[in-house]
Amino acid sequence: MRITFIGGGNMAAALIAGLHQQGHPDLQLHVVDRNEDKCRRFAEQHGASWSLSVSEADLQADVVVLAIKPQGMAALAEQIRPWLHQQLLISVAAGIRTSTLSQWLGDYRQLVWVMPNTPAQIQRGVSGVYAMPEVQQTQRTLVDQLLAAVGTTVWLDDENRMDALTAISGCGPAYVFLMVEALAEAARKLGFSDADASQLAGRTFEGAIALLAHSGEDPASLRQKVTSKKGVTEQGILSLQADGLAEIVCRAAERAQARSVEMGALLSQGAQA
């Protein structure tokens, strides 16, 4: 199977690395990117062939992953449109719906939209996936197999839900990083050095998430287990609840979703988001 990546950014790099690590003997990876040094690294580290500009030969693949910035997608679509003949196209561009991309591609319908998140870079990501109705089940299974190289998948039956998914899993890592920052700052205010504060906060989050993943229990149950009545943890939890932590997170997700909708509308009109 031959997979061509148009664009060699972070998400393409994560997929290429993950697929290479899986070690499929019949897998051929090809990268198109204007940065020659980047292309050479893909070749050296992952055995990928490469080119600096898109040609018809690059589209002679089973799967083509469109991994460029959203602002350049309309021009790319116009360029590759004459070379399409039932290849499966996977877009990882934020904000561009398959209906818009299909229109730019002359009503091409073998399209899948994937919204990964940054933990995909260490094969621990979660990707939202939407496929146009014309994409067959065998192709959907193939998409699952490819994305398994960078984590897990959540399939959507309505691509308008991608805005909500982006607000949760796409933005979620940044929310977590901000919470780690806040806990580290609290540690500094309680007298810990910068190094110790960072380690205490980071390792606490890392361990808590690992415990959640391995315990099989839901977050509320684990929280209740560690929150003794009239204990130290209870006072901290009560303070967070009184300040409306849950409502703060919900408002953040709602604002992120609204911005995702706005960006998608602008991109579909060819405007800068």
TrEMBL record:
One of its GO terms (molecular function) is pyrroline-5-carboxylate reductase activity. The keyword Translocase does not apply. Its EC number is 1.5.1.2. Pfam families: F420_oxidored, P5CR_dimer. GO terms for biological process: L-proline biosynthetic process. Residues 2-95 form the Pyrroline-5-carboxylate reductase catalytic N-terminal domain. Keywords: Amino-acid biosynthesis, Cytoplasm, NADP, Oxidoreductase, Proline biosynthesis. The keyword Cell membrane does not apply. Pathway: Amino-acid biosynthesis; L-proline biosynthesis; L-proline from L-glutamate 5-semialdehyde: step 1/1. NADP(+) binds at residues 6-11, 67-70. GO terms for cellular component: cytoplasm. Residues 159-263 form the Pyrroline-5-carboxylate reductase dimerisation domain. It catalyses: L-proline + NADP(+) = (S)-1-pyrroline-5-carboxylate + NADPH + 2 H(+); L-proline + NAD(+) = (S)-1-pyrroline-5-carboxylate + NADH + 2 H(+). Belongs to the pyrroline-5-carboxylate reductase family. This is Pyrroline-5-carboxylate reductase. It comes from Leeia aquatica.
